[in-house]
Design a protein that fits this description.
Blueprint lengths: L8 H61 L3 H18 L6 H11 L4 E10 L14 E9 L2 H11 L7 E14 L2 E12 L7 H5 L5
Antiparallel strand pairs: 1-2, 2-4, 3-4
Length: 209
């Protein structure tokens, strides 16, 4: 059967034109919608970034306040360190005399009497070389019944029961008497080692972090 076109060609072209116009309008609306979505999303990201910047500035301001409050802490710490260094230099050879005498009093042999004692320390320079022969000396004068008793005294000073000493020797042993009892007078000297030093400075000074 033969097809007969009843629509004029001009009307057909107008219909096609309207369809194309509607298509472009639809595409434009879709583009505007997408543009709005992107704009809203970007606006939210900018707001989040600005909020983060404000939060960081507030944190920086708070830290600056804390730093200002602690401005004198470093000077105080330096002053404390200098004082500790001064005391350390002054007490570099600080001997615990009370501990030494107390230990000695418990270990003196029964047949020996200590009549006098004296002690001295070597004044060391903290930056100088170490003293190899000891940090000081301890000298005694005493009385014993016999020379073997003097030897027992020397063994006590050099034993592990009386740490902090080395190189003990006797000097000036002479015969004497107390009433009718025969005795000997003697002197003895011993070198003090680092074990005789006190640690009171480091025990009493607090640590600062």
């Amino acid at each position: 059967m033969r097809t007969i076109n009843l629509i004029p060609q001009e009307g057909k072209r107008q219909t096609e034109g309207r369809q194309k116009m509607l298509l472009w309008v639809a595409l434009g609306l879709i583009y505007l919608l997408l543009l709005g979505v992107v704009t809203v999303w970007r606006g939210g990201a900018v707001d989040d970034a600005e909020a983060e910047v404000r939060s960081q500035r507030q944190a920086n301001d708070e830290l600056q306040v804390e730093i200002s409050a602690l401005a004198g802490a470093e000077d105080l710490s330096n002053e404390f360190g200098a004082a500790v260094a001064t005391m350390s230099a002054a007490l570099i050879n600080d001997v615990s005399w009370g501990r030494l005498v107390n230990d000695l009093g418990r270990l003196i042999p029964d047949r020996v009497w200590v009549t006098s004692y004296s002690g001295s320390v070597n004044r060391l320079d903290p930056a100088g070389p170490e003293v190899q022969l000891g940090v000081g000396e301890l000298a005694f004068s005493g009385i014993a019944f016999d020379r073997p008793d003097v030897a027992a005294w020397l063994r006590v000073l050099d034993s592990d029961r009386f740490p902090g000493h080395v190189g003990t020797w006797a000097t000036g042993i002479t015969q004497s008497s107390i009433g009718e009892a025969e005795t000997v007078n003697f002197g003895s000297t011993t070198s003090l080692t680092e074990e005789a030093l006190s640690s009171r400075l480091f025990e009493r000074i607090p640590e600062i972090f």
